[in-house]
Design a protein that fits this description.
three-stranded antiparallel sheet, 53% helix
Length: 116
């Protein structure tokens, strides 16, 4: 694969590098986490707002937020007792957009449209 930044082909990843790439894909390979990303696209939200918007339990949303925060995808800011979550790494949205673009290409004949 050609790397536009360096103008060359990067070396193959070792096992440790491949594991790091796989970790990113695992982090995004959960529908609840994708739903959280979709909600946070419009701006920071509290756990309570995400629970209400997603119709999921507070425990489930909190668990997924922690995983995404620990993985570096989300940021959080405390405002008194309220915690606001936001997208910290826009790469996650770009990956989702690429996947949706490919799904849309495949589904074009069936008139199906995917978007996150």
């Amino acid at each position: 694969m050609f790397c536009p930044e360096t103008g060359s082909t990067p070396p193959k990843l070792n096992r440790q590098g491949l594991e790091k790439v796989a970790d990113v894909f695992r982090l995004l390979a959960e529908p609840t986490r994708l739903a959280i990303l979709q909600e946070l696209k419009s701006g920071p939200k509290t756990v309570g707002a995400l629970v209400e918007n997603l119709g999921l339990s507070q425990a489930n949303v909190s668990k997924q937020l922690k995983i995404m925060f620990d993985g570096g995808v989300l940021g959080r800011e405390k405002d008194g007792v309220t915690v606001w979550y936001s997208i910290n790494d826009k790469m996650a949205l770009r990956l989702c957009a690429l996947v949706c673009q490919r799904l849309n290409q495949r589904a074009n004949e069936a008139q199906v449209y995917y978007s996150i």
